[in-house]
Amino acid sequence: MTFPGIEELLLYQLVVESLFSRVRVVLIMSTKQRPDRIYRQPRESVRDFTFDRNVALAFQDMIDRSVPGYATVIDMISVLASTYVQPDSLCYDLGCSLGASSMAMRRGISVSGCTIVAVDNAWDMLNEAQRYLKKNKEGTPIELVCSDLLDIAVCDASMVVMNFTLQFVTPTRRIQVLQSIHDGLRPQGILVLSEKIAFSDAEQESMQIDMHHAFKRANGYNDLEISQKRAALERVMIPETLEQHRMRLRQVGFERIHVWFQCFNFVSIVASR
Ligand SMILES: C[S@@+](CC[C@H](N)C(=O)[O-])C[C@H]1O[C@@H](n2cnc3c(N)ncnc32)[C@H](O)[C@@H]1O
C-alpha cells in the first residue's frame, strides 16, 4: 500500500462523491501554466503521448500553438451556445481538458436552469481545470466529472461539445460514444464535433500535413519537437476522414451534419437529429 506524499497532501483537497454512477471531483491545487517545451530535448525513444501532469501544465500553450483555428473554434462555441442551448437542459463538454469549451459555452448561455457537465478521464487535466474554474464561478454551473467517455450516459442535453477528443478514443469504440450523445440529445439539440482529419487523397493528405507543420513552425516549434510529438501521438491519436465521420454520425441517427469550420486538417462539425 502506498501513501500520498507530503506534496500531494498539501496541494490537493479532494472531494469525491458518487452520483448517478459518475464520480464528481473537486480538486484544489496551486499550479501555474507554462510554455510547452515537452519535446524540445532529443529523446532516445519517444513514449506514447498521455495527458499527464507535464502536459496539463503546458496544455494551454500546446493547444494554442498546435491546433490551427483553436481560438476561433472556442469563440464560436459561445456563439453556438447562445443560439442552441435550451432552458433547463444539460450541456456536455466531453474530453474537457482545462475546461475551455465549458467556459465558452458558459459565456454564450443566456437561458436559465442549465448545468454544464465537463468530463475527462485524466486527473491531471481536471486539476488544472479546477484551478481555472475556481477563479470564475459566475454564470451557469460547471460540474467536473472524472470518467471515461465510454462510461457516460448523456441525457436531457441541448448541446454536446467534443472538441478534439473523439480522435483519442479507440476507433471501434467511437460509435458507442456517438450513439450515447445522439440518444441523449433533446430535439433541436446539437453536437459540436471538432477533429483532426485525414484525407483519402494522398496528395491532399501530404499537403495538409505540410501546412500543419508549417503552422507549428510559425508558432515556434522546431523540427525535432514536431517529429517527436508526432511519434508520441502516432498510436494514440487516430484521425479519420470527413467521410468516415459523416458515415458514423448518420449511422447513429444524426440527420443534419454540417462542417462549419476547417483550417488545414482540422475541422469542426455541427450535427443534429
Ligand atoms: C485534445 S484534448 C481536448 C481539448 C479540449 N476539449 C479543449 O477544447 O480545449 C483531449 C482530452 O480528452 C481527454 N480524453 C481522451 N480520451 C478520453 C476518454 N476516453 N474519456 C475521457 N476523456 C478522454 C484527454 O484526457 C484530454 O484532456
Describe this structure in words.
This protein is an alpha/beta fold and 273 residues long. It has one domain: Vaccinia Virus protein VP39 (Rossmann fold, 3-Layer(aba) Sandwich). It contains nine helices and ten strands. The protein has helices spanning 6-11, 53-66, 70-84, 100-108, 123-135, 174-184, 202-218, 223-233, 242-252; strands spanning 13-19, 22-28, 90-94, 115-120, 142-146, 157-163, 185-198, 240-241, 256-263, 266-272. Strands 3, 4, 5, 6, 7, 8, 9 and 10 form an eight-stranded mixed beta sheet that branches. Helix 5 links the parallel strand 4 and strand 5. Helix 2 crosses helix 5 (123-135), helix 3 (70-84) crosses helix 4 (100-108) and helix 6 packs across helix 9 (242-252). The longest helix is centred in the C-terminal third of the chain and has 17 residues, at 202-218. The chain is globular, with a radius of gyration of 19 Å. It starts with 5 loop residues before the first helix and ends with a strand. Bound molecules: S-adenosylmethionine. The site of S-adenosylmethionine (SAM) has 19 residues, from helix 4 and strand 4. S-adenosylmethionine (SAM) is lined by residues 51, 63, 95-97, 100-101, 119-122, 125, 148-149, 163-165, 168-169.
